[in-house]
Design a protein that fits this description.
This protein has about 425 residues and is mainly alpha-helical. The protein has a single domain, classed as Growth Hormone, Chain: A, CATH 1.20.1250.20. The protein has 16 helices and no strands. The longest helix has about 30 residues.
Length: about 425
């Protein structure tokens, strides 16, 4: 990592500051890995909802509601943060909210469906809000041509953070199970472990990350007016960013489905035990970290659009493999393919949005990125949940349907010119 002229970092940015920014990805990834992907999702379906036929749909509905709230609030919050130069202040508030409601998930036990759904809505809302805000710092920290690499550092540390959180939980779960404890006893404790790690690992972010933006009082005072103006401007003046946001919505629908339902699919379709599932996702986080770190460099060499096209082709092949898997070994292969594609696609998408965003309006435009991702987070998991419910629990069919989102994203990716889009952003 270098801040010398021609290096990866923007002028005046110190490596310590970038690492403190990247550590937030390390900190918040424990939430998605433990709560959304590995532990609480399967616990909700099997224990809280008692494996009811509607349990998967109820889980995806809670996530959908939280993402709908983020969709409504993310662009206005982004505009407000730009107007007041307050990204870091809002980030602190969103972090506190996620930590509080994650810890509160420890209170949800068998039959507490309404309580569990409410706490998932609230914790995931604050998580998603913080995710948008931390991403908006990227263009301030990295040179334009190095956004892929710097974004990859964050995502790579993020998967390492998920690995650490899941590893701690796996150690505790193994000890608890050896002592005869059931899921209703050890899963609540893992929620407290996840919340505590979030606090600890995010502390350097608030100590060292600077708010470089300056207040912009000339921006519209009404956040809704700013939202409408930004959306209209993107539709009118930024054709490449506009098309990519639609593309992003499609392929992220598939990604968010995999994130939200991986443990459920492993247990319901493949018959994995809880420990099997935790071990699987632990390894997937390693391959995801490798994908995020390595592919940032590949992206900067190939170009943003070609890199994302390669990733989407990988997603299509991986989903087909998971759909056809009839043995644990084949499913493990598919899962590690998911890890590589997951790490690289998350980093690549964030970097391209930063590349296509006008300087000085990053939080506002990353609010639109968050809007697109959260829209996909409603579309994908709800589609999976509805298909599994209507088909009488056919999770393989639901996975096959998920693959169509990646195909649609690959089709929409054609016609995007990253160089042309960057020139428009700089000239805006």
């Amino acid at each position: 990592m270098s801040n010398a002229p021609g290096g990866d970092l923007a002028t005046g940015v110190r490596p310590r500051e970038v690492w403190s920014w990247a550590l937030y990805d390390f900190a918040n990834s424990g939430y998605t890995t433990v709560v959304i992907t590995a532990l609480f999702s399967a616990y909700f379906v099997a224990e809280v909802a008692g494996n009811a036929p509607w349990a998967t749909f109820a889980w995806t509905s809670a996530l959908a509601l939280s993402y709908a709230l983020i969709m409504v609030t993310a662009p206005p919050l982004g505009a407000w943060a730009d107007r007041h130069a307050a990204k870091k202040h809002l980030l602190l508030m969103s972090t506190a909210g996620c930590v509080l409601f994650t810890a509160a998930l420890a209170l949800a036990g068998r039959g507490d469906v309404a309580l569990a759904m409410l706490l998932i809505v609230l914790s995931n809302f604050f998580f998603g809000t913080g995710e948008n805000l931390i991403a908006a710092f990227l263009p301030e920290l990295a040179r334009g041509e190095a956004m892929g690499r710097v974004s990859g550092w964050g995502w790579g540390l993020g998967y390492l953070g998920g690995l650490v959180a899941l590893g701690l939980c796996l150690v505790y779960v193994s000890q608890a199970q050896a002592g005869g404890a059931g899921a209703d006893e050890f899963v609540p404790v893992t929620m407290l472990i996840t919340a505590g790690l979030f606090v600890l690992a995010s502390t350097p972010t608030f100590l060292f990350l600077r708010e470089r933006a300056q207040p912009r009082p000339e921006m519209p005072a009404s956040s809704w007016r700013a939202l409408a103006g930004t959306a209209l401007q993107v539709m009118r003046d930024f054709p490449d960013l506009r098309r990519f946001l639609f593309c992003l919505t499609c392929y992220q629908a598939g990604i968010q489905t995999v994130i939200a339902l991986a443990a459920i699919y492993a247990q319901q379709a493949m018959g994995f035990t809880l420990r099997d599932t935790l071990q699987l996702i632990l390894v997937v986080n390693i391959t995801a970290a490798i994908g995020a770190l390595a592919f940032g460099y590949v992206q900067d060499r190939l170009g943003h659009v070609r890199a994302i096209a390669l990733i989407l082709a990988g997603w299509i092949l991986t989903v087909l493999l998971a759909w056809r898997a009839d043995s644990a070994a084949l499913f493990w292969l598919a899962a590690n393919g998911v890890g590589l594609c997951l790490g690289s696609s998350q980093s690549a998408g964030r970097a391209l949005v930063g590349w296509l965003s006008p300087p000085g309006r990053e939080a506002e435009f990353f609010g639109l990125w968050g809007f697109a991702v959260k829209c996909s987070s409603i579309l994908g998991p709800l589609t999976y949940g509805a298909v599994s419910w209507i088909s009488g629990g056919d999770h393989r069919l639901a996975m096959l349907v998920t693959g169509t989102f990646f195909v649609a994203g690959l089709v929409l990716l054609r016609g995007i010119d990253a160089g042309r889009g960057r020139l428009r952003a700089i000239g805006a």
